[in-house]
Amino acid sequence: MKHFLTTSDFTQSDLSLILEKATAFKKGNIADKPLQGKSIALVFFNPSLRTRVSMQVAIYELGGNAITLEPGGNSWTLEHREGVVMDTDRTEHLKEFVRVLSRYVSAIGVRTFAKLQIWDEERQDPILRSFAKYSSVPVINLESAMFHPCQAMADMLTINENYNRQPQKILLTWAWHPKALPMAVPNSFLLAGAAFGHDIRVAFPNGYELDENILETAEKLAAESGGRVEFTSDNISCYEGVNVVYAKSWGSKNFYGNLDAEAEYRKNLRDQWRVDSAKMAITNNAIFMHCLPVRRNVVVTDEVLDSPRSVIIDEAENRLHVQKAILSEVCG
Ligand code: CP
Q: Does the C-beta of 102 come closer than 6 Å to ligand 1?
């Protein structure tokens, strides 16, 4: 049994096989129903459009049955801390929840965002890790505090489709957002991009450095794959020569637990870090990518989002195909 928690748990060859399989699903070349007679639980602690719908559709189209649970909504509120006295409003412990689910279903997908409160705790991804620890069936990460591997695989497929599977020069740029957001998407994009040999420039203002363990892993993966990872705080020259622009906002680890101070710290960055046509014109006719949902004219202008070089809808569609490949690998 293998969980799918982060792409860096897999070799480049494993990841390439998943992308090949995703392409075959997309082309309609796989008629198998590997989930026939199986049920998959999807546990959503947070809202979703793409992940929820694409997982439910993928499971249905693979012959399976999806059961979506929302702790605190249609299932009990959950406690994940070990050894606590459960006298708060949390009704059930993850130890029971996950072990019981494992007796009913063939895999468990889980979405559990960072709360951006305690950096040292959240960077360990405690809820995702508890699912993995107590589950006796594969766990698929549908976005956790630190990783969004299904998104990253859809991103890699989208880049492959646009550039004939050749490694590319990519800009991963921070963007201003009305509220601080988790780092799962940039972390996973960086790790997957490095594993596939891309040359990735990460641009962000001072104070928005990603987790040091993620950076170390990305640099190691890039060294193995022939890729490269570089960093800049120059929000204009970072666009020079790139073929892909990937925009995403993320919060500062320096301000976990103090989000009002974080908002004050970044208040002057709003206009400088928006992606617009002038910046895209500096690139090598780059495609524009974003995981969605996106704040129009805040993160990126309408003109860029609606341009022929925007691939955001293909990128969202590719979630369906890569998740079919992942589901069929982990529980087929
Ligand atoms: N990109 C992504 O995961 O979208 P949702 O939050 O809508 O699932």
A: no
